[in-house]
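#structure-requests
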Amino acid sequence: MDLWVLTETLFTQILRRKKMSEHLLKPKLRGYRYELFCLIKHAQTPHCLVYCLTSDEVSSTWNNNRDAAEQYTQDIFNALLLRFEAPDSRNRWDSPLFTILKDDAPPYEDISDALFKRKAPPRNQSTQNQPLSSSNFLYELDKITQDVLMAIFDAQKTSIPGDLISVPGATEKIELTRSINMAELRKLRRQFISYTKMHPTEKSEHICNMFVQYLQKSLH
């Protein structure tokens, strides 16, 4: 199964759950870890991140020693290495963080305490269910996010990686470190729309900035 299809399937199943009572395996990509953190805040459940740290060479050896049907292809394995971003305990969505080396004994008691003895992270405005602010909310959500996509896509024609791209209607800019195709942008737009439908904002003028912030986190 393609890596991105697998990750998307995992995330979709989590979104569909009414009660987040089981322990979840967090995907490696930072954008997904942040989205899951938002869901965790909404569900009001404690969480932690367990990071199994090893070298690329050891990981490759482990992958090659698996049954052929369970191995990642070399292309997918290389993509994992390229896209992986190590968690940082200074980020709310990566904390509390437990980093375990290959020969370490897992800190079971500390992990248990983090999951069952800590308070859940408090909700904020972005994770509280609110009524739709107007009958035009879905229309504005669709139009604004589409306009942002087109602005980014058009800006890429005259920009180079590292440039800051201005988006009409947003106070923040997007820094693109690589070229982003429309298929990837549309996929991120669908994810953002799905989440925002669950947590609509009171003011439609906030949608543009929210989407820009979401893209910024997901694309880096």
